[in-house]
Amino acid sequence: MSSKTFNNIPLSVLDLAPVLEGSTPKESFQNSVKLAQNVEKLGFNRYWMAEHHNIPGIASSATPVLIGHIAGATNTMRVGSGGVMLPNHSSLIVAEQFGTLESMYPDRIDLGLGRAPGTDQQTVFAIRGKLDQHPEDYPRQVEELEDYFAGTAAVQSVPGEGLNVPIWLLGSSGFSAKMAAQKGLPYSFASHFAPDNTVAALDLYRTYFTPSEALAEPHAMIGVNVIAADTEEEARYLNTTQQQQVLNMHRGQPGKLQPPIENPDEAFSQMDKAIIEQSSNSPYTVIGTKETVRKKLEELLESTGADEMIINSSIYDIDARIHSYEIVSELMD
Question: Fewest CB within 10 angstroms: 29, 113, 262, 267, which?
Fold first, then answer.
């Protein structure tokens, strides 16, 4: 039985800088700044940006640049990557980028690492110039990155060397869970889109965890999709944006974030509804009022024993999105 409550675990924010239908990436970045400044006032712990490529509705491809933009527009909140897809990059370049960020915003930068490409195979080739990846490449890259920060690499990372940039491993399977455990690093599981593997991966992480200089005890964060509103009806209405997003991804046609629709029963076919129902059955997707959200998140705390939650909210209107986080923040009071 977990004794954790919202009074003793941090809540954080995941932002993909969504590009809204009818808008541009420039407006997405303005919305991200507005959201970050508001959630900092609300007491959220960290604000992470996620690397994706070749997706018209996600503008967070140049993740370190955006992290600097958000850190410069806020004051105390931790800002970082959720994550940088390390196989897309040179470990030295990542060390230099995040060493630069840490030098500019001391004790505020997180480096979350993923091993998935964050895109399709054609774009992988455009990024890396190759498609094949050896299973040992990612662990080797992580070790290289640690060596650059520790100053034990043959090449110096300037800036970067000697700086304390917390490294997190991110994942949606047991591979990163076990690797994070063996290295004694904090771990974030992508339960918001891979719910079925969550508990098993967290158990694996805690079972194999070895204390390190970075971390004395395991620290596991889970991702949750939350759409909160003042009424259940409003929350369901706002959720039609996320439902359209799910359908477009299922069809292989990712696009910009769509406005909510008034009559989903008429707009969605029976097949659409079946796809939506399957995705919405996840306990890591929570839609409703403050009390509904409280109940569902408390159940997740109980079942996972998470040390932290990072919340993604796919809401079209930026003010409604901010209000959703306001409602969630009231759980921390």
Answer: 262
